[in-house]
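Standup notes
- DV: blocked on the single-chain target, sequence here:
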Amino acid sequence: MIRGYGNVMATDCTCPEAFFEEQELPRLHRLHQDAEAVARRQLSQSTTATIARLPVGATIEALVTLWRNFQMQGLFWNPDEERLRALWRILVMVGLYLLVVRGTRWLFATVTGSEAILTNTTPIELFRLIVILILLSLMARYVDKRHFSDYGLHLKSGRWWANLGFGFLLTAVLISILFGIQTYLGWITISRSLFDQGLGSVAGMMLFPLLSTIAVAFYIELFFRGYLIINLGEGFNFLGRLYQPELRVENSSKIRQLINSIWQRTPVLSAWLMATLFFLVVRVDSDVATNVLLLNLLRASFLLTLPFVLTRSLAIPIGLNLGWNMAAQNVYGLKVVAGGLLGNEVGGALSSARALLVIVQSGPEILTGGTLGPEGGLLGMAAVVLAGMIVMLSLRLRQSSDESAVDPWAFPYRPI
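- DV (later): unblocked, structure below
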């Protein structure tokens, strides 16, 4: 083809200039367009055939490469970071998360041919945890283009497990205090206990509910705190660039400094707000939502998000979640709010087979939460606020002695 182009050019050199511009130049342009179209079709056919023979991970990477070859950039693709923009990454993972959470129950009922298995949530929650871990690993490697550890799981670190234990003990002790206060005031009556059936029965009947609670704590914090906060923070980074006042003047006003300080936190605060709103939609049914419950969940979301933002570790958030739910629902028989898009299989009213103690709840609902459990009452609100103060004090003390602490208000992209 190149030789043909050269012949045409050599022949047309002796022709008048007007003849070349009117007839030969358009013909060469059409030939060039036809050649590009043929090359594009060949690329599409060969890429499609290759993708069909690749494993899952390589298929995802090949699809992303194909996307780039067709120049689907700008709105969808970040050429500087060589990956999808944050909005599309988040939408993909949110869709997969909801599919796993809502589809697991249907899958188990279909495979077994009976809905009786749905009364035992342990295999369902463990399956969800495994699938979400696999999906996040693939997203981290092929879509987010980051290290999986950026999501906050550092299971090989002894300090990580120590922080998880700190969070677990904190909320477990606070729930125990709430239970003790209500029992002393006569608002909780213990009707029976699993200890009445012997220690062997206690161990056997509590094992699977505890595994279920552990699985839920891990995959919820991994998705809502680890994945969403990181990607939302990166997506909202542009807000920090919209307002950049020059503060290097010695006599800058304190008000101006305050405005700049607040504005630097806008990406993180925006990420927390969006993740919290999605958490409320997924976890709470509108027909049971009360003002106290929503305020408590907002505070709880802030309590769980703050340690991750300050440390980039999920140890304390998972510990806080696990300690609260395990002490409340598995030990004391209190209720934990759950519903929304997740359904009512997580938390809710507990049967005697899932709780160590079977109780009768009374007392003023504004304080105890009534049918909503501690999360729906003012006593639960006080516990969340106290836990937040202790966590902030602990993190402040650690940061003052840790020179390698991360900048909590920045979400720099750290590629693989």
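- Follow-up: Residues 1-14, 247-251, 341-353 have pLDDT under 50 and may be disordered.
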